[in-house]
Prior knowledge:
Helix content: 40-55%
Order of helices and strands: EEHHEHEHEHHEHEHEEHHHHHH
CATH architecture of the largest domain: 3-Layer(aba) Sandwich
Mean pLDDT: 89
Shape: globular
Number of domains: 2
Number of helices: 14
Largest sheet: 7 strands, mixed
Radius of gyration: 22 Å
Structural class: alpha/beta
Amino acid sequence: MIKEHLEYWYDKDGNKVYGDPAKFNKNLVYLMDNDPKKVVSPVGLRFRKLISPLCRMAMPLTTKNKFKIVKPYELEEHFNKLSIKEKIKASKQYKIPKGRPVVFAATHGFRDDIALTIKAAGKHAYVLYGSIPDFFYSIDGKALWLVGTVLADRKDHESTAASLPKMERVLDLGGKVIIYPEGVWNKSPNKLVLDLYSGAYRLAKKKNGIVVPISTIQVDNTCYAVRLAPFDITKYSQEEGIDKLREILATGKYKLMKKFASISRVKIGNADEYWHNFLDELIATSNGLYDYEIEDNAEYKKKDVVDAEEVFAPIDNIKVNFSNAFVYAKTRNINKKRY
């Protein structure tokens, strides 16, 4: 990890923002090391396992929002018709099997989803975390250190590459990990779940682990999470496994939204304005610690997928003249309709 990245981050206008030295968590700098043995110890893991029930109980106290952990079968339409015996039977398929390493893979879309995921996991797990300003300049860093954290500087390739062996060490020592495979907050207006990084698959495959998906949403001041059935991702190829995981996460998120997040068109009003206001409010929850440079560029994109922004970007550099004005005007209109 590059120490220079601790000094500043970028605001939406591309300006450097420097943190308050008085708030800098200097005692946590050792987590920047890329050596797994220097950041994850057997003693530290045992200590964190011991206090993890208290940490999970305290998670709702760290925010003004309410946390609600939903059982998967509660999202099914026929849930109310199930007998107690059927509910107990249904719940068994969601238990985490013993004897295999566990990788929790969660959706990512709002500030409290990390605390919510830790609570929803129901087990102690180290969190893979990549928001450097927030970690070193807020109380969140100390709280995450207490829970157990694998830190990754997304601006430094060596640091992100080192995160995998660090998590391997956690699993080797008998621990569990939480990964957010979307890599950034999902700020897409039309994707339930962004394309996923492959870390969860590669970690599970190498250690013969099981993946436990967790879907989350926030509606007003209530955060909802559902821990879904354990998924043996190792039975698939990397591409198939990642696609299957994304489908599971999206389905869980859709069911949460269907049950708890209905909204009328009247309340939405102007869709573009509503969405921009939503994003502004979302980013504001980071308390000025949102690094626009990394958050706007760290989303995973498949090599064979081209989005609308890439297609229409050359338009901005076109010099309009008599011969191209007609075609240019039509293309601009198409572009405007897309956004």
